[in-house]
Amino acid sequence: MERRYASHPREVKQFDTARLREEFHIPKLFIPNHLELVLTHEDRLIIGGAFPIAEEIKLDMDLKELGVSFFLERREIGIINVGGKGVVVVEGQEHELDHKECLFVGMGNREVIFKSLDTESPAKFYLNSATAHQSYPTQKATLAEAESADLGSIENSNDRTIYRFIHQNGIQSSQLVMGMTLLKTGNMWNTMPVHVHPRRMEAYMYFDLPEDAVAIHLMGEPSETRHIVMRNEQAVISPSWSIHSGVGTSNYTFIWGMAGDNKIYSDMDPVNMKELL
Ligand SMILES: O=C[C@H](O)[C@@H](O)CC(=O)C(=O)O
Ligand SMILES: [Zn+2]
């Protein structure tokens, strides 16, 4: 497990490209037959990827780092499959997860195992785990089952559909909020006009990007913005004080996950466009 510390906006102003990437950018989530985990001290979210091909992968780590006897003893997890068909086995019970489907697993489950159904088209499980104080039922949702909203327009190059899987009015959790945004062909911008939500941090994972395409992710205080160049299947941490928006050289999909004081998706403070610097 890799550790990332929380940051102060006044300090982050001084960062050069390398330091910004060291602190906020997660370059590789999917390593064959491996569980990659990054714990950020921004609301203690764990961001990860499980990429089982020939072998199955158990949700596990050096538990001394969490001070518990099993991963979900004091945590919950949201899982979204961005690869081929897979299975998540929770306490012996199989949950099949197709491409772009989500599974929530609550606190208290001792065993979680990730498997692919076809080694030719392996599953890729993207994970967000937050600390929890109460156990909520394991629940799956497809895109069709998620609450969705069409936002933006082709004129603003941001015609997209937002699918909310885990939130106040969806799958129940202690604090995890998670969903996915699909941009339509020819649309490049997400989350513009920008917002902040000092009550919650957020992590983005960009995918469905062609191999040589990039997304320019924007972060920082509204009056002190920076960019991080993102490639396919990379994640980026957004502290609660930071904007989080991006523009691609091609359209893409991204998963957003949040942890903090509330689970209300719409609890955002819009930034006045005149204040962006
Ligand atoms: O707090 C919510 C998140 O930033 C995203 O859901 C925004 C987003 O998907 C979009 O506007 O495209
Ligand atoms: Zn946000």
From TrEMBL:
* Any Pfam family: KduI
Q: Cofactor binding mode, per the note? A: Binds 1 zinc ion per subunit.
Q: Which reaction does it catalyse?
A: 5-dehydro-4-deoxy-D-glucuronate = 3-deoxy-D-glycero-2,5-hexodiulosonate
**Annotated GO MF terms:** 4-deoxy-L-threo-5-hexosulose-uronate ketol-isomerase activity
Family, as annotated = Belongs to the KduI family.
**To which pathway does this protein belong?**
Glycan metabolism; pectin degradation; 2-dehydro-3-deoxy-D-gluconate from pectin: step 4/5
What functional role does this protein have? Catalyzes the isomerization of 5-dehydro-4-deoxy-D-glucuronate to 3-deoxy-D-glycero-2,5-hexodiulosonate.
Cofactor names from the entry are: Zn(2+)
Q: Which residues bind Zn(2+)?
A: 195, 197, 202, 244
Task: Give the protein's recorded name.
Answer: 4-deoxy-L-threo-5-hexosulose-uronate ketol-isomerase
EC assignment: the record states: 5.3.1.17
List UniProt keywords, sorted A-Z.
Isomerase, Metal-binding, Zinc
Extract the PANTHER family matched here: 4-DEOXY-L-THREO-5-HEXOSULOSE-URONATE KETOL-ISOMERASE
Q: Top-down, what is the taxonomic lineage of the species of origin? A: Bacteria, Bacillati, Bacillota, Bacilli, Bacillales
